[in-house]
Amino acid sequence: MSGKTLKTVNEAFQDEYPDDEISARQTIYRLATKFDETGSMEDAPRSGRPTSITTEENMELVSESYTLNPQKSQRRAAHDLDISRSSVRRIMKELNLKPYKPRLLQALNEDDPDRRLEFSQWVLDSIREDPIILDRILWTDEAIFQTNGRTNRHKGVVATLFVIVITLIYIYLKRAYSPSPGDLPGVKPHIFFGNLINSGIWTGESAFHQVLLDYQHHFGDKFQYWLGSHRCLVFCRIEHAQTIFADRRTFENSPLNHSNFDLFCPNSLVLLTGAKWKRHMRILLPMLKLAKIIGHLETIVQCADRFIDQNLHPGQIHRDLLSCCESLTMNVIGFVAFGCDFDIHANSQIKKAVHDFESYAMWLLPLPWIFRWLGKIYLKYNWKYQRASRLFHGLAQKLVEEEQNKQSEMENEPPKNLIAALVSSLNEEANDEQVSSGLTSAEIFDEILTMILFGYEGMPPALLWFIFFSSKNPQVQQKMKEELREHHLLMTNNLKCVPPLTANNLSSLTYCECVIKEVLRLAPVIEYTIRIATCDTIVDDVKIHRGQNVFIPLHNINTDARYWHHADPHQFVPERFLAEDKNHHPLAMIPFGGGHRACVGEKLAWFQLKTIIVRMMQR
Ligand code: HEM
């Protein structure tokens, strides 16, 4: 080392230890001298009592070291000067040097005091003029500026991060909701609410079926509609529906169809796909076939009679006919599916519970997934919902227990109704590997609730639409009665009782059937269905990505003039099914949807509707 300049030594040190600070000049000289004299860097063993460390020389060294670099830490100084840390601390105390941490201070410019004074004066004047002005100022606490001039840096960082995150979310949402080239036409969506607000659905200004008809009128057969935060591709032609319904591998039931329904019934058939769905269908479908339902004809007639006796007197004014139709439908489901008299009347507990359940479901359905947990919390603390939920679980439990008792008394009898089929399928070990392994008790409970809620959904509006159309078209009522008279089914004054209905005479009533078809074709009972693409695909030159929702507007197809030739398709004309439109395309009328996820209750709904309507006309 000797013979080299300090600069060369420093450079060599820097090359070897690039992250360390260069030692003070004195330290280097001291070390060089020690090495030349002893051939080692170690201190020579000392004899006698150790000398005090706070010598003149050390104090000078410490002082010089901190003059050169005031930001140096005590640890660093101790290392450089080869003095212990406690000695450095002691020497610094003697030198009156204090350790400190740098703090950001607010710099004051020359004119700041004047400006502050001016501002303070203005505030005082304003308070004098308007004493509540301070209440109208939004004070923020992102960073507190104190009179000593120090800024809370931590809060500043949090505020900056908050602003960055919000900006990024905003940019993401802006991009997600902006149309990209090649998109189908549609109305620009609002963030989160999509087209629900600007189409008037959310505000209740427009009906969904009308909006879908208007969009088709404006944008053609393919357009996009934002259902809340979900972009749906809407396809309005029969050919589209045919492609989508037929391809069950690519298009599955969309969770959007019944979004958030899993909050109520996580094991419901309507939410399931694949092997699980098949396992549930194996139990439910046989009980909903026409052959089984025909066996309940007498029960349905009795329910219809009860409804007519209570509600349809000549001259009676109805304020809430929908509620009466709901009671009728619920009674039918109770008897047909569960062999139980639900004893539904306007104020019955079950009906109230269904209403509570549905209104909270409806409230939650349009919410995007992001708010699901909010919905869960809301439901947890909503006592009406909790009460309805308890009632349904109690009801399901009671139905299952009663059926179990019945089955233990009559062994090996084939199930007569839905609850019998469900209970005899009970198997807590049921799994999707074995499609015929039955259902667990949790799954049975959810299916009972599904049947009550779904059996209740489409029927009452369909009945109500029949009453509406037939009252607007008395000639249709006349023709129905003539047909009944021809078949000796009309109640006349000289008959003591209403002629009995059988499956045979019901099926021979062709005109009555045309009327029901026309009601289901024209009335927007369920306006649309949604499928989700399970892989990338193309429909009519439109690229559909995996996970994309595809919308089929059932009512648009049911009333499309391209498929209906006898009279205006928006008019109620049952005769069309006897004339030009007799052989209409099977998909020109799809009130129950289509494909493998079509309505499972279709046969029950048809038979029920026909029986009740014919019974009303008979009397
Ligand atoms: C006039 C009365 C009814 C109408 C108009 C109707 C209509 C519909 C429609 C359009 C769908 C969607 C189909 C699709 O996505 O392609 C559906 C599904 C369903 N309906 Fe009905 N329905 C009626 C009555 C019933 C009844 C009485 C039941 C109960 C037994 C029922 C049970 C169901 C179930 C469980 C589903 C879901 C099927 C699945 O996801 O696989 N429906 N209904």
Automatic annotation (TrEMBL):
The keyword Metal-binding is assigned to this record: yes
Q: What's the protein name?
A: Cytochrome P450
Q: Which cofactor does it need?
A: heme
Membrane-spanning residues where?
156-173
**Positions contributing to heme binding:** 599
Q: Region entry Disordered: which residue ranges?
A: 34-53
Q: Which InterPro entries match?
A: Cyt_P450, Cyt_P450_CS, Cyt_P450_E_grp-I, Cyt_P450_sf, Cytochrome_P450_Monoox
What are the record keywords, sorted?
Heme, Iron, Membrane, Metal-binding, Monooxygenase, Oxidoreductase, Transmembrane, Transmembrane helix
User: Which Gene3D superfamilies has this protein been placed in?
Assistant: Cytochrome P450
- Return the PANTHER family for the record: BIFUNCTIONAL ALBAFLAVENONE MONOOXYGENASE_TERPENE SYNTHASE, CYTOCHROME P450 FAMILY 4
Q: Does the keyword Electron transport apply?
A: no
Which family does the UniProt entry place this protein in?
A: Belongs to the cytochrome P450 family.
Q: Which GO terms describe its molecular function?
A: heme binding; iron ion binding; monooxygenase activity; oxidoreductase activity, acting on paired donors, with incorporation or reduction of molecular oxygen
Q: Which CDD domains match?
A: cytochrome_P450 (cd00302)
